[in-house]
Design brief:
Layout (H helix, E strand, L loop, with lengths): L1 H20 L3 E6 L8 E7 L3 E8 L5 E6 L2 H12 L7 E3 L8 E5 L2 E6 L6 H19 L2
Parallel strand pairs: 5-7
Antiparallel strand pairs: 1-2, 1-6, 2-3, 3-4, 6-7
Helix pairs in contact: 2-3
Length: about 140
């Protein structure tokens, strides 16, 4: 009987670890520039749960939680899978261009300027920004 209980506990523990490991998130952060660049962070989980924190130059400030449609969520994660993960920094040395961070789990890509940024990474950023504009900022 004790063996049965121990095995059951171990199996339950393994299942919950697997469920946690299969959940991923993408965070997109825009930083300030000298002008009126939107400053916010947006995190999307692979399950479609999203959180947005508007800081300045956006029509929604503060924290917002929202569910993003499954189709859009899948598109964003598929676009992430298509980018080159070897280069982690794209810097065009532009003085007044806001830095953007793209974080997948703990993997971070830094972008400042669009020079030398691969098209598939630009497509991902555009999809995320469009999603934020449509579902949160209502632009």
């Amino acid at each position: 009987m004790v063996t049965y209980i121990v095995i059951s506990i171990l199996l339950i523990g393994c299942k919950s670890n697997h469920d946690t490991a299969s959940s991923h998130s993408i965070t997109y952060i825009t930083k300030a520039c000298f002008g009126k660049c939107p400053v916010y962070s947006f995190t999307l989980s692979s399950g479609g749960n999203a959180s947005f924190t508007g800081h300045k130059n956006v029509n929604q400030t503060g924290n917002i939680n929202i569910n993003i449609p499954k189709k859009t969520t899948v598109e964003i994660f598929n676009l992430y899978d298509q980018i080159d993960h070897t280069n982690k920094t794209y810097n065009a040395n532009l003085r007044d261009f806001p830095e953007k961070l793209l974080i997948y789990d703990k993997d971070t890509i830094r972008i400042k300027g669009s020079k030398n940024v691969p098209q598939n990474l630009l497509n991902l950023i555009k999809k995320i920004e469009t999603t934020v504009n449509i579902h949160i900022l209502n632009n």
